Amino acid sequence: MEEEEEEEEEDDSFEDAVCSKTPARVNTPLSVITEAFENLADLLKPAEKDEEEIGLRLDAFCNACTHVSILFSCLGFAFKFAEMEYISKVKDLVEASKSFDTLQNILDLDVEKETVKTPGSHSRNLRRVRQGLDLIRAIFEQFLMTDEYSLKDAATTAYTQVCAPFHTWAVRTAVYAGMYTLPTRDQLLLRLDETDQSVEKNMRRYMEASLPIIEYIDKLYIERNIKLDW
Asked: Is the pLDDT of residue 15 over 80?
């Protein structure tokens, strides 16, 4: 009987040793961002089922958005302007989250005050943050089209589609000139601590999770008769 107990203890010790050698999950910058937006997208699902929409909490939205700035940083000089603008707008919304519960709340107040498009208003800053999220999504989409597709081509196409129509000539010129300083595909993977396989998985996860957030924000403006051409 004692021998059997000793054998069981040895088996348990062996299992513990094997489990302890199992590599822990590595959280890369991209995987952290992806998980944050998947959690944010999950918050929208209950609202979609309810007759009365509670709304997306502003603090939860800001929490997910704060992680994204590192992606702009990885792109280097070409997107320095986008990085600085994005960070400043997110900081403003973080401060606003101390006074407002939801994204709807800040929009409704600016609609009432007729300051939706006023520089510095929360609604304008929300619009710019939304463009930043969409820019990253579009870059990922273009980046994954083919193995040979360069980051420069991907970023140029994405910027032209998402941000260029709303930027001044001076900003557009600076951004396009900076495209030549973008990292190579391999350099980007190194900066993100990703492999070819993991980066594709995480980029697709972000694209899928961020799209309903982007569409939700657009819907908030459209429901209040605010055009999206600015």
From this structure: no
